[in-house]
Amino acid sequence: MINNCSFSGYVQSISELKQKGEMAFIRFCIGIPRRYKNKEGKRDYDFIDAVSFGAQAEFVDEYFNIGSPVCVTGEMKTDLYTDQTGKAKKSYSLVTNTVRFPPHELQGNERASYNNNKYQPSPSNSAADDTFIEYDDDDDLPF
To answer: What are the structural domains of the chain?
Structure first.
């Protein structure tokens, strides 16, 4: 099973950076404009609650404000709880794996994203990538 979500939108709200033990965390809400406009000619938004941890939380705290464009990937988490009236409730939040600026925001910003993924692919062999084998379609085919 795969639990991998990607969203791009605008930061709608952001909490202060907090500590739980030695782990920093920050909660924020992403407003995602819908594809189509409503009857008034404006776009409706969907809102996704997100949380980042550790150095990624510090990155969000330092570089993002309300209204900042943002792209995130992560895992959707479901929390089950009972409200004050005793009714069972669900809430959803995105636990981020990556938080970055949209591509058009990258100009002049070398530190444009933070990725929790520790895996770093080895550099590719550029000579192998540039190799192209010419196909001769004049040959007789064996069938």
So the answer is: 5-102 (2.40.50.140)
